[in-house]
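Weekly modeling sync, notes
Attendees: AB, CL, MP (scribe)

Item 1: holo prediction request
CL wants a bound-state model with pyridoxal-5'-phosphate before deciding which constructs to order. AB pointed out that an apo prediction alone won't tell us much about the pocket. Agreed to run with the ligand included and paste results into these notes for async review.

Input as submitted:
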Amino acid sequence: MTASGNTGAHETGTSQLLSFDGSAEAIRRNSQWMAGGVNSNFRLNISPTPLVIERGEGPYLYDIDGNRLIDYYLGMGPMILGHNPAALTEAAKTQIEHGILFGGQTQVEAEAARLVCEMVPSAERMRFGGSGSEVDQAAIRLARAATGRKKIIKFEGHYHGWFDNVLWSTAPAPEAAGPREAPAPVAGSKGQLTDTSDTLVVLPWNDLDLLDARLAKGDIAAVIMEAAMCNAGAVHPLPGYLEGVREACTRHGTILIFDEVITGFRLAPGGAQELFGVTPDISTFGKAIANGFPVAAIVGRADLLDMFSTGGVVHGGTYNAQPIAMAATVATLKSLQPALYEEIGVTGTKLMDGMRAIFERQGIRAVVEGFPQIFHVAFGLDQPARDYRDLALMNRQAYVAFTTALLHRGVRALERGAWFMSIAHDDAVIERTLEAVDGAVSQIKADGAI
Ligand SMILES: Cc1ncc(COP(=O)(O)O)c(C=O)c1O
C-alpha cells in the first residue's frame, strides 16, 4: 500500500509552519455543546489545540485548517491498515445495505469470531463487545466468578479502561504512589469509589518475586496486565517474566488476563501472546481488531467463556457484534497477514533507527524503545524503561514541546510518547517524518525547551 497523493493541502516538509487556528476556534465554539469540545478526556489538553479533522486517507489526516498531517495517533492505535482502507469501506457499505442492528445473530459475526479464534492462540471461545473498557470488565467478572475470590492485581502504568475498579495508578505522580515495592493505589478520577482494600492490589510490573509473594496469600482472583506495557510506553517484558507469571498464576489458582487492547493484532496476528509464546486464561482485544470500527473481544479458555452461557455470568451490550462493524472486522482480520507485520517491521525499524540517529547527532538524551508496530520515545532516559517508575523519569515538558513543534511541521504524534505505525506509512512518509523530527529537535533546542 502506498501513501495517497497530494490534494493541495498545506503539507509536511514545506518550510512554512502549519497553523491550527481553525481547530482552536472550533473547539472553543463546540465547547458550548460538548464538554471541553471533545468526547473523551484523552483528547483534551493537547498542544497547541485538540484538532478538528475533516477526513483521513492512508497515513494522512486532513484538518479543518486545510493541513495535511502524517498521523501517528492512528485513532489512538486501531488504524493498523491506515485511514480509510478500501477493503474495509467496501465491506461496510455492502453490509449496511442489509440493515443496521437486529438484536439477533448474523453469519458475519460468526465469521469474525471464527477468524479471531483461528488467529489468537488462547482463543478457544470468545464474545464480542463494544470497547476495551467493557471487555476488561467482563474479564474481571469472569475471573471472580470462576475463582470465588474478589481481589485483582493490576500494575502501575497499565491501563484497562476508565471504569471505577481499574482506573487506578495508570499515570500516578511517583510522590503520591509511595514505595516502588508496595505502591499505594492512586485514583485516576474524582468521583471514583475510593475503597479498594477488598478488591485491588497494585504492584510494579516486571517484578516476578513481588508478584509471586503476593499471589501466595491465595486470595487473588486475577492478574490483569498488558503483556507488553504499551499504554504508558512500549516496554518489553523482561526475559522469562511472562512465563514466570503464567506459572505462578497456575500454581496459586489465579486467572491470568492479558489485556491485548493495544498489542492484539498489532504486534503479531495473534498479539503479544503469539509473539512471546505465553498463553493467558483470558485475554481482551479492541483497537486494531477492526481498524477503527467500535469492536472489542474477550477470548480465552472454553470452560471460562462458557460461564457466559451456562455459568450464570452476565455479559451484555445492545451494540455488541453490530453487523457493519462485524463486516469491517472480517475485512480487517483477513488483511492481517504475516507479510503485513514484516513490512511494518521494516518501516517501523527505519523510523526508530532514524530518530535515534537524529537524537544522537543533535545531542538529545532519549530512548526509542518498543516494537516497530508501536514504539515509544522518552526524553531524558539513558536506557529502556523496565516499569512505570522508570518511565516517570522522562522529561515530559520537553517532549510536549517536541510534539508541538512536530505538529507545526505536519507530523501528529501522541504527547505521551507512543508512536503507532500502519502499513500505509511507506518509505517516503518515513523520510518526511524524519525531516520533521530533525527540524522539531532544532527548534526546541533553539527555544531552550530541552
Ligand atoms: C491496554 C488498554 N486496555 C483497555 C483500553 C480501553 O479501551 P477503550 O478505550 O476501547 O475502552 C485501552 C484504551 O486505550 C488500552 O490501551
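Recorded for review: The pocket of pyridoxal-5'-phosphate is lined by residues 76, 131-133, 136, 159-161, 226, 231, 259, 261-262, 286 (CB under 6 Å).
Action items: CL to compare against the apo run; MP to circulate these notes.
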